Amino acid sequence: MIMAEMEKHPDSYMNDGNFLNKLLIPKGNLTYEQVATQTLSPDEKRIINDFVYLLEKSKQLFQQLRHLPQHGHFNWQVHFSRTFDCFSKLWKFQQDHRGVLDMKYGLQRWQIGEIASRIGQLYYHYYLRTSDTNYLHEALIFYLAIRQRDYYSKFDSEEILVKKLRYYARFLVVSIMVNKMDLVLELKSELAGLIEDMSTEQNTQDVDEWKGILNEVTAFRNALCHLTVTRADTSGVTLSHRLITENMVLPETTLSPNPLKLQNALIVGTKIGQPKVTELSLDMYRIGSILEKNPKCLSALKNPIKQYLYKPSARELMCSLAEMGNVLQRQSVQLIYLSGNNVTYTDRGGQDAYTSDGGMHFSHKDTSELKPSSRYCPELLHAEDLNPFLRHPTLLIVEGEEKSFLNNTSAVFRQPVVVLLSPKLIPHTLKGDKVGSLMTLFLHCPMMGMSLLCNIDQISESQWRKGLIIIRGLLAEILTIISSSKNIHSHIIQLLDDPFIRLILLRFCLFTAVLQMHTAFKTEEYYPTSVPSLKFAEICSKPAIKRGIIDIANILESVVLFSAP
Questions:
Q1: Which of 398, 459, 102 lies closest to 267 in space, CA to CA?
Q2: Would you call 477 helix, strand, or coil by DSSP?
Q3: How far apart are CA 394 and CA 527, in angstroms?
Q4: What is the distance between the alpha carbons of residues 460 and 474, in angstroms, rounded to a whole number?
Q5: What is the pLDDT of residues 53-87, one digit of tens each?
Q6: Contact between 270 and 361 (Cβ < 8 Å)
Q7: Is 348 in contact with 357 (CB distance < 8 Å)?
Q8: Contact, 421 vs 529, CB < 8 A?
Q9: Please, how many CA atoms are within 13 Å of residue 40, restricted to the half-sphere of its CB?
Q10: Paired residues of 396 in beta bridges
Q11: Residues with Cβ within 8 Å of residue 327, at least 6 apart in sequence
C-alpha cells in the first residue's frame, strides 16, 4: 500500500516530515520512536526519506524481475534496465550519505551487503539471459567486494545468517562459472564454517539442507578438477575452456555459399546421479562453456543465447523449444543439447506416430524409479517429438544411448539438421557419472578426455601444452579432410562456417577417431554416430590422424592403450 502511494505521489512523500513513521523500519535499524525522537535537520530528513524510498523501490523492482518468465518475455530488457537504474542510484546514494544513514537511520553493514549482493544477482541473471560473460565478471566483482569489506561480519539473528549463507551459495556458483577453482576452495571452507555455526548456535532445522548444498559443490568441483595440471613448482594451472583465438580452427575460405551462425542454444540435463550445482549439471556446464568466447578476445564474435533446463517436465521442454524457434532469425542455427537417461519401452505394439523403441526420461523423480515404461508415458521424450521444432537449421547433440534419435529425427522441413549421438556402450572401467559423460567431456576439452581414457589424473604443464598443440593440428587436419571431401553432406558444410559449431564437429570427429584406436572400444556400439554421416572411415584412416593420436598417447605415457597406425 505504501509503495503504491509513493508511486502516485513521490514528491509529496519526499517532503513529508512524517514519512519515516509511515514506513516499516528494516530489522536492525532504529525503531520508529528512536527515529522520531531524534533531532533531524531538514537535509537529514530528506536524505533518510530518499534512501528509504529507493530501498523499497529497489526491492519492489527486484521482486517483479523474479516473476518474469526465464526466457521469451519480449519486454524483459526494460524491466532489467529499470531495476539496474534504481539499484545504481541506491548504491551511490548510500555511499554519498553514509554518515547520516549510519548515525541517524542506523544503517547496518549487512544491509549494505544485501544491496551489493542483489546487484551481483542482477548481473548474473543478465548474463544468463544474454550469455555476455562481461556481466558474469561484474557479478564476481560485487561478490568479491562484499567478502573483502566483510559486510556480513556481524549478525545477531538467524535471518541474517541465512542471508549470508545464500550470498555464499551464489558466490560459489559465479566462481565456478568463471573457473576460479582456488577461490571455490576458499569459499567452500568458509561456508562449512558458517554451517557449523548454524548447527551449534542457531540449532536450526535447515542445517542438513545447507550441508547438502556444500556436498553438491564439493562433488561438482572434484569432477571439474579430476585432471590436475602442475607447474614445476607444484602449483596448479588454471584451465580455461572458453573459445579463444588459439583454439579456433579457421577454414581458408567460407565453406558454404550461405553461411549460417549459431544464435540460440537449449541445454537440457536430466541425467541421474551426475554432480550438479543449483540447477546446473556437470554436462550442462561443460557444453555451455564451449559456447562462450573469452571476453578478452574475439570482440567481433557474439556468444549464442543459452537457456539451461535442469530436469524439466516434457511440457516445459516443448514450450522452450517452441519459444527458441519463434525468436530465431534468418540464416541462424539453433543448438539442442540433451543429456539424460534412456528408457526402453515394454509395449511396442499399436499403430501411432511413435516408431522408436525407446525414449529419454524427463522426470524430477529419483533415478531408482527409472524402469522400462510404456511409450505413452508423458515424461518420456521420443525422438519424433523433436521433428516439429526442426523448421530451422539445427545441431542436435544427444548424450544418451537411444539410437532412435538418429533414425527418427530428420530434416523433415528440408532445413540443415545434424545429429550427434554418444556411444551406446561405454567400457565398464569408464562407467559412472562422477566425472560426467565421456562424449561431452571430449567436446568440452579433448585433452581432458584423452587423460580420462588413459586413466590419468595428473600431468605436467609441459605435457598439457604439447598435447594441446597436437590436438590443434589434428583438428586443422580434420577440417582440411572434410572441406576437400566430395562425400560430406551439404548440411554439415552449411553448419561448419560458425566457429562454435565448427569446433564441436571437429572435436566430435577426433573423439570418434580416438575411440576407434583405443583397445577398450571394440565394436560399433562403442563409437559415436552422426546423421548425416561425417564419413569417419575417411577421417580415421588418414595416417596423419593416427600418428597424432599416438603422439598424444606417448605424451601421456599410455601408448599401450592404443592400436598402432
A1: 398
A2: helix
A3: 22
A4: 21
A5: 999 999 999 999 888 876 655 678 899 999 999 99
A6: yes
A7: yes
A8: yes
A9: 22
A10: 336, 419
A11: 72, 264
Identify the sign of the CA torsion 546, 551, 555, 560: positive
- Contacts (Cβ under 8 Å, ≥6 apart) of 439: 399, 420, 422, 423, 508, 511, 528
What distances in angstroms separate CA 121 from CA 56, 84, 140, 176, one per listed residue? 17, 11, 10, 15
Residue 385: name the closest of 402, 367, 368, 364 by CA: 402
Do residues 504 and 290 lie in contact, with contact meaning Cβ atoms separated by under 8 Å? yes
Residue 315 backbone phi and psi in degrees, to 5: -65, -45
Give the CA distances from residue 219 to residues 214, 458, 463, 490, in Å, rounded to whole numbers and listed in that order.
9, 18, 26, 42
Q: Name the least confident of 12-16, 183-187, 223-227.
A: 12-16
Instruction: Point out which residues pair with 458 in neighbouring strands.
Output: 228
Query: pLDDT, tens digit, for every residue of 241-280?
Result: 777 766 677 776 666 677 899 999 999 999 888 999 989 9
Residue 60 dihedral angles phi and psi, to the nearest 5°? -65, -45
Identity of the highest mean pLDDT range in 217-226, 295-304, 366-375: 217-226
Task: Identify the DSSP state of 233.
Answer: T
| CA nearest to 94, candidates 134, 126, 158, 47 | 47
| pLDDT digits 0-9 by tens, 154-182 | 777 788 888 999 999 999 999 999 999 99
The residue whose grid cell reads 524510498 is: 53
pTM of the model: 0.89
User: Which three cell numbers, joined as nine digits, stand for 31?
Assistant: 525503531
CA 286/CA 304 separation, integer angstroms = 15
Which segments of 131-246 does DSSP mark as H helices, in order? 133-148, 158-177, 181-197, 207-224
- 284 is written with which cell numbers? 550442462
What span, in angstroms and rounded, lies between the C-alpha atoms of 326 and 74? 11
